[in-house]
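Technical note accompanying the year-one report. For the benefit of new consortium partners, we illustrate the data format agreed upon in the data management plan: each record pairs a sequence with a structure-token string. No post-processing was applied to the example shown here.
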Amino acid sequence: MKKLSIIGMLTLILVALTFSFQASAATKKNLTLDLPTSVYANNKRVATIHGKTKPNAKVKIGTFGKSVKANKKGEFTLKYKISKKKAEKVIKITSKIGKNKVSKKVTIKKKSSNKPKASTTSEKDWDNAGQINLSIC
């Protein structure tokens, strides 16, 4: 009788572990992270990254970055300041619920600082541009 009880308990434990593993795998499979592949920083070198994941997931930049919590719709916003010295930087963003996580990379790019060059045409040139010289022969 004891052997039967022990076998029954072991069977129940195995079944419980199987369901637990399947539920964990299903959660990991369903954990998503939608992000743009690249984002431009503003004039102050700050990029705003909007994304979507599972509701209430923790989302963070890199290993030690500050995390934010996704809202009830799974939407979140992160900010990242790019170095003055770099034209672009690839960062890793991770979404995590419990032990399940998914990561993606985003490229942060600086805005082009190509300002239009000043015109070399003087005011005198512009004043004379509309005049036509006519000569009668």
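Partners are asked to follow this layout when depositing records. DSSP finds two helices and eight strands in the chain.
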